[in-house]
Structure formats: structure tokens, C-alpha cells
Amino acid sequence: MPVSVFDLFSIGVGPSSSHTVGPMRAGAAFAAALPTAGVVGVRVDLYGSLASTGHGHGTLGAVAAGLTGADPETVDPDRMALDLEELERAGALRLANGTTVPFRLADIVLHPLTMLPRHPNGMRLRASGADGSVLADETYYSIGGGFITRDGETDAAEVAEAAIPVDDHVPHPFSSGAELLVECARSGLPVSGIALANEVALDTSEAAVRERLLGIHTVMEQCVERSVRRTGTLPGGLDVRRRSATWYEQLVRDDPDHDPLFAMEWVNLVAMAVNEENATGGRVVTAPTNGAAGIIPAVLSYALTYVPEITADRRDDAVVRFLLTAGAVGSIYKERASISGAEVGCQGEVGSAASMAAAGLAEVLGGTPEQVENAAEIAMEHNLGLTCDPIGGLVQIPCIERNAIAANKAINAARMALRGDGVHHVSLDQVVETMRQTGADMSSKYKETAMGGLAVNVPLC
Ligand code: SF4
């Protein structure tokens, strides 16, 4: 069952798709199902990675905002921080069902050393009645990229609550790179054509798909434009300086005509601008996660700026083909491995995003499906083993720079693939499976717990 491209590119808020967007969706889903009368208390238990890095990722504010009915796509990004402060002062929360209950941050209990069996990002939400009875008791899992699932649902039902439902009745079903290539060969369509036909089959039209993808790209661009106007330090206490505003000024001055010699620096800028905005809790496009949200906008920006064939009248078409191709590759990672740093480390986030971006670029550079598959494979092959060890549990170091490095790696992967004929030794499916196995073997210290790597070797000031 292919995952919709719109599940992989969703509009949300920073700093983390699994730790912010997913918990907000879980809180909203839980509150929406509560009875309209009789609820006098709510308690939230966060487990594993959500508990160990939840403070740094804004999880507590996100789940509380979700309980009030906030939606990641529409919530005011400034509202979550206010919620936390106001929550303590008010000592009460107005739930999505209209009920106001006593609630303080102490009602969100952290269990960093307890991993629920199904996934490292577990959340249990309970509502109680006046006589102490439990009116609702649900366990959710934030499984990466803002997707949530609930105990009692099968893995096949792992869908974001707000996502478009995907069924099996698409014209070109695929769940692996090999199947995708077979569909391309059978139909004569490029990878983007396969993805487009499948999206259109999901009860919409080609025009609607295109319009929605262009809207997603607009949000990506707006994110960069906002970020390069903001200076100062990022929140969270690490005192990490925002760099994109200064770099933007310098690049505009030093490279007004976009000399290709400066291409790498513009790619760095876009990737870092997105991730600085994400670290601030701003509005970003999850692509396919928030921590890795800068890579696809940066590589897409490179394509639109430096590929001579993408003239102004072909720009929209290039955006659509790029995102569809990237989405097709992302769906393979989602189905066969994971895009969750808590499950497989950063290779699942930054590695998957680089692989998706390389595929998108290869397609708009005119690559064959085999070359597109090769580009995706190269980009992941050289991100295998990448750990997740954010300092202070914040999505800042190494995350922000890592997006810039990975974006340039993705461009290189696409360029390398385009120099070949698509025939290569390691298939995309083999590298996806290697990523999955490597993630399964990886110590939990390196899977979004901030208990190893840079997180323990760089002292917090
Ligand atoms: S290190 Fe990678 S996986 Fe971990 S929070 Fe940062 S971007 Fe996400």
C-alpha cells in the first residue's frame, strides 16, 4: 500500500515531527473522542524517546495544545510556548470537547527509561470521571514524520490522523524500488508519473495534486524567507546563534548573479534557514521529518536556480515532478524501514530525506527511472549508520548543519547517478534493508534519547 506523497510532505510546526507534530495529533485525536460531559481530569504519560528529549523537542506543549484541539497545520507556532506558561498559571486546560479540566505540567509524567514494546515514542493518555473511573485510556505511538498509530490498530493502519487515506486501488502499486522500476517499465512513465497517477487515483484530480504540491513548495519558500530575516539565538538554552540571516546578506552581496561557484553555499543557506526556523518552533514542511526538513527545499532550490532547462515556464512542472519523485522514494523508506530517528537513528531522517532529494533532482535533470533509483541509493548508502545524538535533546546540533551537508551530498548523488547508465551494484532495496537492520542493531543511546554521542560529550553551558 503506497504512502501518499501528502503524508510525507505535511505542513506542521517545529521542532520535531515525531516529538511535536505526532504528539499534538495524538492529543487532538484523544480529546476529540472524549465524551462531552463527565471528564474531570486528564493525565499524559510519555515514554522512551518522547520523555528523554521531550522538553527539548517541545513535546509537552505540543500534546497539551493537541488536547485543546490544536492542529499542526493551522496552529499559531507561537501558541505552544504560551500554552506552557499559561498552563502553569491557569492550572486548567480547555479540552477539544469543550470541557475545562484542572491541568498542570505535572500531569504530564515522563518515563525516559521505559520503552513501550511497540515503538520508542509511546504516549498514554487517560481521562477520568468524578468518581475516579477511567473514561478513556489510549496508548499512541508517534512513529516518525508526524504519523501516529494507536494500540489496537494494525501496522497497516499507521496513518496520520489528518492524512489522506490511501487504499490499494492505485494503478501502479509498489512498495519497493524494484516494483517501482517494474511499474515504470510497464507503463513507460517516469517515477513522477507513477506517483502522480497513484495520487490522482486517491479521489482527486491531477490539477488538485499539482496545486497542492505547489502550495507545499510555497510554504517551504515562505519558511526560508521568514528565517533569513530573523537574528539572535535559538531557544532552548544552548545559545546557538542563528546564522542564515547573516549568510543571506553576505551571499546576496557576494553572489548577486548566482554564479555556480557559490551554488553549494546557497544550498547550505536554504537548508540551514529551514532548520533554524524549525528549531524555533516555526512553520515548516515535514519532509519527511522536521529534523530533516531543510534538505528537500535546499535541493529543490538548487534545481530551480542552476538547472538551465528549468526555465520560468517549466518551473512549476519541475517542482511537481521533483516532489512526486521524492515522495515515491520516501514511501519506500516508510514502508520497508523507518523515517523515525527514535527507531533507526538519523539515517532514517536525514538519510531518507537526502535519498528522496537525490531522486527528485535526478528526475528533473532528465534521469531515467534507473538513474533516479541509483541516485536515491547512493544518497542513502553514504548516510548509513548515521546516529541521532542531539545536544540537550534540541533539534539544533548536529541537526541544522547536518541538513546542509546532506543536501549537498544529495546533489552529488544525483550528479553521480546521471553520469552512469542506471546499472549499479547496490540496489535501493538493498540499501533500505541495510538501513533498517543497522537501525535495529543501533544502541538506543543513538536513537533520539540524547544519551550518547555529542549529547554526552559536549557539555551544556
Ligand atoms: S540528529 Fe538527526 S534524527 Fe536526531 S533530531 Fe537531529 S535531525 Fe533528527
TrEMBL record:
Q: Which reaction does it catalyse?
A: L-serine = pyruvate + NH4(+)
**Classification via Pfam families:** SDH_alpha, SDH_beta
Q: Which InterPro entries match?
A: ASB_dom_sf (IPR029009), Fe-S_L-Ser (IPR051318), Fe-S_L-Ser_mono (IPR004644), Ser_deHydtase-like_asu (IPR005130), Ser_deHydtase_bsu (IPR005131)
Q: Which domain of life is it from?
A: Bacteria
Q: Which GO terms describe its biological process?
A: gluconeogenesis
The cofactors required by this protein are:
[4Fe-4S] cluster
Q: Which residues does the UniProt record annotate as the domain Serine dehydratase-like alpha subunit? A: 187-455
Give the E.C. number(s): 4.3.1.17
Keyword annotations for this protein, in alphabetical order, are: 4Fe-4S, Gluconeogenesis, Iron, Iron-sulfur, Lyase, Metal-binding
User: Which GO molecular function annotations are given, in alphabetical order?
Assistant: 4 iron, 4 sulfur cluster binding; L-serine ammonia-lyase activity; metal ion binding
Q: In which pathway does it act?
A: Carbohydrate biosynthesis; gluconeogenesis
Annotated Serine dehydratase beta chain domain residues: 4-152
**Enzyme class (EC, first level):** lyase
Q: Which PANTHER family match?
A: L-SERINE DEHYDRATASE, L-SERINE DEHYDRATASE 1
UniProt cross-references to NCBIfam families, sorted A to Z: sda_mono
Q: Would you identify the family this protein belongs to, as annotated?
A: Belongs to the iron-sulfur dependent L-serine dehydratase family.
The name on file for this protein is L-serine dehydratase
Species of the source: Curtobacterium luteum
